[in-house]
Structure formats: C-alpha cells, structure tokens
C-alpha cells in the first residue's frame, strides 16, 4: 500500500497539450518529418515549390496576427499577455521582413502574387484562425496556434544541425523556428493551453481537440500543396 501511495504521489498528470498531440497520432509525425522540411534544410528544395509555399504562407499572416492579438486580449493576466506581445512584435517585424526579402530574391512581384489565387488550404487556415479569434474560447484559440508553432519547432529541431547555410531563403526559415527564443514562445503558448486544460469542462476540451486536429490537417495539406506544381 505504501508503494502504491508513493507511486500515486510521484506521478504527474499528462499535460493537456500532450493529450492533444497524442490525439493527432501518426499525422503529427508525418508533418514534422515531411519532405518539405528536409529539402528546405538541405537547400535542395525546388524553387517553384518554395515560391508556392511562401506566397501562400504570407497570406495568412494577417489572420495569424488577428488570432495572436485575440489570445493576448483574452489572456487571464498582464503576466500572460506580455510574452504574447513580444511574439507579436517578432511576427510583424523580422518574420514579415523575411517574406519581403524572399519575394525580392525570387523575383516575385506584387503583381505576380496578386494574380495567384488562394489555395484551398490557405483559405481554410485563414477562416479557421479568424473564426476562433472572433468566437472561440481562449483554449480553442490556443489549440490552433499551438499546432502551428509547436509543430514548426519540432521539425526545426530535427533539421537544425544539418541546415545548409548558403541561401537565406531556406536557412532563415529554419532559424525563425528554432533557438532559445522560439522555444520560449512555444513553451509559453503550451503553458497557457495546459493551464486552460485544468479549468475547462469536457465539452470545451472536445472543441479544443477538434480545433487541434483541424489545424494538423491544414498543416499537412499546406506542405503537400507546395508540391502540386
């Protein structure tokens, strides 16, 4: 009996974010091991593939900002808001500048971009982010953004050491999603969601799971789309 009590006392409950990741099953692994990530890091990615990816990815920057701003607004304290504000500054500064430099390097004009329609997965991402930002709970908002940032950190860490540093178009995208500062962002977002998981009811947890899995599908679709030349 004493051993059983000690075992119970030493065991910690599974983090809500880990539960959500487990629900994604093999899809999580497919996303973080996608050929896009390997080819990006090695610098061997087809230029048409990276062009398609960057043009579409830049289009949900606005929806992402709306989602992150809504998370900041709905966070439960000033202490919880400040790291989100700092991340928002990065997204609207360094990351946005990266896109502009890439478009110039790859000779993609504003007119070229305007002539290209939104991909189905781009529309899906934008709609999802705006929908949860406007009508979802804080936990649902976090369930979407955690997939985006945690999955990118996960694949970034897998390819970081083998990343070829010849072309900023490829290696800076890895840099933006690795390192201590980005790890801190993901830890912050996961912590917020884990804490929400301790206080939300079962129906809200199901809604979070649905949003998490919906975002996972969009992440996989987005990587796949880039190769449909």
Polypeptide structure, described:
The protein is an all-alpha fold and 229 residues long. Helices cover 79% and strands 0% of the residues. It is built from 13 helices and no strands. The longest helix has 28 residues, at 78-105. The termini are far apart.
Question: Brief description of this entry?
Answer:
This protein has 229 residues and is mostly helical. Helix content is 79%, strand content 0%.
Write the layout of secondary structure elements.
Elements lengths: L1 H9 L5 H9 L1 H7 L2 H8 L4 H13 L1 H14 L3 H28 L4 H5 L5 H16 L2 H22 L8 H8 L4 H18 L4 H24 L4
Helix pairs in contact: 2-13, 3-13, 5-7, 6-7, 6-9, 6-10, 7-11, 7-12, 9-10, 9-13, 10-12, 10-13
Number of helical segments with 4 or more residues: 13
Q: Round the mean pLDDT to the nearest integer and report it.
A: 95
Note the run of SSEs as H and E. HHHHHHHHHHHHH
Global morphology: globular
Largest sheet descriptor: none
Structural class by sheet pairing and helices: mainly alpha
The helicity comes to over 70%
Q: Would you count the extended β strands for me?
A: 0
**In percent, how much strand structure appears in the residues?**
under 5%
Rg from Cα? 19 Å
**Which ranges are low-confidence, i.e. pLDDT below 50, for 5 or more consecutive residues?**
none
End-to-end Cα distance, whole Å, is: 64 Å
């Amino acid at each position: 009996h004493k051993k059983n009590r000690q075992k119970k006392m030493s065991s910690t409950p599974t983090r809500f974010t880990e539960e959500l990741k487990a629900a994604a099953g093999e899809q999580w692994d497919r996303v973080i091991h996608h050929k896009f990530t390997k080819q990006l890091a090695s610098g061997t990615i087809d230029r048409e593939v990276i062009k398609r990816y960057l043009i579409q990815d830049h289009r949900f920057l606005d929806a992402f900002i709306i989602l992150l701003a809504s998370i900041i607004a709905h966070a439960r304290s000033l202490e919880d808001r400040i790291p989100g504000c700092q991340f928002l500054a990065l997204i609207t500064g360094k990351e946005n500048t990266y896109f502009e430099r890439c478009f110039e390097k790859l000779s993609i004009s504003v007119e070229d971009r305007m002539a290209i329609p939104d991909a189905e997965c781009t529309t899906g991402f934008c709609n999802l982010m705006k929908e949860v930002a406007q009508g979802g709970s804080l936990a649902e908002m976090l369930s979407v953004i955690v997939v985006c940032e945690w999955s990118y950190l996960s694949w970034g860490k897998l390819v970081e050491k083998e990343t070829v540093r010849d072309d900023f178009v490829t290696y800076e995208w890895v840099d933006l999603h690795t390192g201590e500062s980005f790890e801190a962002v993901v830890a912050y977002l996961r912590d917020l969601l884990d804490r929400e998981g301790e206080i939300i009811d079962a129906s809200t947890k199901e809604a979070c799971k649905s949003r998490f899995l919906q975002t996972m599908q969009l992440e996989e679709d987005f990587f796949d789309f880039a190769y449909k030349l």
